[in-house]
Specification:
Dna Ligase, domain 1, Rossmann fold, alpha+beta, single chain, 22% strand, 4-stranded mixed β-sheet, 347 residues, 3 domains, D-amino Acid Aminotransferase, Chain A, domain 1
């Protein structure tokens, strides 16, 4: 009897502000998946949280939009997850990249690609992430964490971080809700914008340097790709520069770095990946200052897979094509699952 191909459940959409980016990433994954090895199962989540099994032919329609539920969100239908042998989450931001989905997948005992519950949660929360990086001795920029009942004055922030500075939601990605504050009059609006997306926000110093990214692949022994550089044409690498303006940034892969700096970037990216308990894949973003100092900015535990995304492009430049990259990620998911199966859960 012929053995059937493993079914890969690709989950996309979701309730975060990065919904549309997720759709674009998922389309690329579906297109690049090796159909000789795997069969895709498409699971879409609309903006209200309802789950749907998606027909692949409809998914590639340019007018595609996940159906909106008239009665609002409903609990995830976990039976959809059980249609797959392994899950590939392409959900950027909260409710997908922050450990919530990963916890559900652990409960239903289905292998999945990427960081587990802890790595996903700390990778999404910029406050906790930065504190863990600092504890691990990884160089980072200066930052403040604030909540709505403790907003510092503009003058205090400038005294701590200098001017300009950035205001960001602690739990969000793709530069959603991010503002660059240059003057006092911009401060209240930036604070409110960030609080629209999270109950905790962070304020970061403005680091003058090149934006260097590095892709990581692996579980216990992760590998680093050739680094790439993002050269924004906007004031900073905003949501608009990333996804709406086709001339918003120039991507240089590989980045023009000396051999010594390449090794330094790669080593720091791997150290960051391990310090944050990540697995599978991640993209570590850093700043390279003029004096050669490298400061880690953040990690993305489900990096973008759109046609312009750095993660697959950096691996392609490192000799690992898109289809082979997906194959490796799926194998890493099964590998971790088999190891975890051997652990005792009861005495």
């Amino acid at each position: 009897m012929k053995k059937r191909r493993p079914r890969v459940g690709i989950i996309f959409g979701g309730r975060s502000a990065e919904h549309e980016i997720s759709l674009r990433s998922a389309k690329n994954v579906v297109e690049a998946l090796d159909r000789k090895k795997y069969d895709p199962v498409l699971i879409g989540i609309n903006k209200k949280g309802s789950w749907f099994l998606i027909d692949e032919s409809r998914f590639f329609d340019s007018r595609f939009k996940i159906q909106e539920s008239r009665i609002g969100g409903k609990a995830p239908d976990t039976s959809l997850l059980l249609l797959a042998d392994v899950i590939f989450p392409i959900l950027h931001g909260p409710f997908g990249e922050d450990g919530t989905l990963q916890g559900l997948l652990k409960l239903v005992n289905v292998p999945f690609v990427g960081a587990s519950v802890l790595g996903s949660a700390v990778g999404m929360d910029k406050d906790v992430m930065k504190r863990l990086l600092r504890e691990a001795g990884i160089p980072i920029g200066k930052f403040l964490t604030i909540k709505e009942n403790g907003i510092p004055t503009y003058e205090k922030v400038v005294a701590e971080l200098g001017r300009p500075f950035f205001v960001k939601p602690a739990n969000m990605g793709s530069s959603v809700g991010v503002s660059k504050v240059k003057e006092k009059k911009d401060y209240p609006k930036a604070i409110q914008e960030a609080f629209n997306y999270d109950r905790k926000i962070i304020l970061e110093e403005n680091i003058i340097g090149r934006e260097i990214e590095c892709a990581i692949l692996g579980n216990d022994n992760p590998l680093a790709s050739i680094p790439g550089e993002v050269i924004p044409s906007h004031d900073f690498y905003s949501y608009e520069a990333k996804y709406l303006d086709e001339n918003g940034a120039r991507l240089e892969i590989p980045a023009k770095l000396s051999g010594r700096l390449v090794k330094k970037v790669q080593a720091l990216a791997i150290k960051t990946f391990k310090a944050l308990n990540c697995e599978g894949f991640g993209r570590v973003d850093s700043f390279l200052k003029e004096n050669g100092e490298i400061l880690v900015n953040e990690i993305n535990t489900i990096p973008g897979f759109t046609s312009i995304s750095m993660y697959p492009k950096m691996w392609e430049a490192s000799g690992l094509g898109y289809t082979e990259l997906l194959d490796r990620l799926i194998k890493l998911a099964f590998e971790r699952f088999e190891k975890e199966k051997k652990l005792k859960t009861m005495r």
